[in-house]
Amino acid sequence: MTGLALAQGRIEVKQFARTRESLVFTLVFPAIILLIFGAIFSGDIDGISFKQYFAAGMIASGLMSSGFQNLAITIPIERDRGVLKRYRSTPMPKWVFFAGKIIQVGVIGFFATVILLVIGMFYGLDLPSSPEKWFTLLWVWLLGLTACTLLGIAFSAAARTGRSGPAVVTPIALILQFISGVFFPFTQLPHWMQQIAAFFPLKWICQGMRAAFLPDSFAASEPAGSFELGKVALILGAWCIVGLVASLLFFRWTTKRDG
């Protein structure tokens, strides 16, 4: 069974690599944004370089692109082309299909993070300074990517056709990036905007990444006066459960016209 999942994962990764749109949205676009913003903006945020702050947010955003955007856009395309319908009619266990998607997201998420780290280091990004901060980076990365993956699978049902996927998903992703502290310091956003962002996982992924990449002294600049890592873990874990339940309830193998 493990061999089936790995084989399906290899197929998914190859298909992703051959799709220009997926490569652009998931890997190239976040890297370009980091390059542009890193070249334009300078200055400090409470004694921390804006580039250091921004790079942490972009790594969080890269996880959302690898999981949520990637799957919520590509799955409707596969459904529209009848790929999912053919998968369902084969003897292959259905979980293997999802295992392949999870493996694909893990591989793409890893490369997206590495690319953003390399670009960030070019601009002077300081890597986590202790084993504890590396551990924080690891568990935030895993929980964040898991939540985004499950939510991407669930939200793939929102697009009625393959063509409508980007139009449905991309605006949501951009809004979440703007209100979650990716492009701007979170505490400088209006209070009502902060409250809305707190309902969604990207805000907490960003906060966890700041805990990994920024010094402990920056915690005093967070809205609660600390990085709240326990709360970050709890909320991201809750979103993993929400994503799993929503995937079981809303995922569709066929379009409405197929019945």
TrEMBL record:
Location in or out of the cell: Cell membrane; Membrane
Pfam families: ABC2_membrane (PF01061)
Keyword annotations of the record: Antibiotic resistance, Cell membrane, Membrane, Transmembrane, Transmembrane helix, Transport
InterPro entries xrefs: ABC2_TM, ABC2_TM_bact-type, ABC_2_transport, Nod_factor_ABC_transporter
Domain ABC transmembrane type-2 positions: 17-254
Transmembrane segments: 23-41, 53-75, 95-122, 134-155, 167-186, 232-251
Entry keyword Lipid biosynthesis: no
Topological relation to the membrane, as annotated: Multi-pass membrane protein
Keyword Transport: yes
Domain of life: Bacteria
Homology family: Belongs to the ABC-2 integral membrane protein family.
Protein name: Transport permease protein
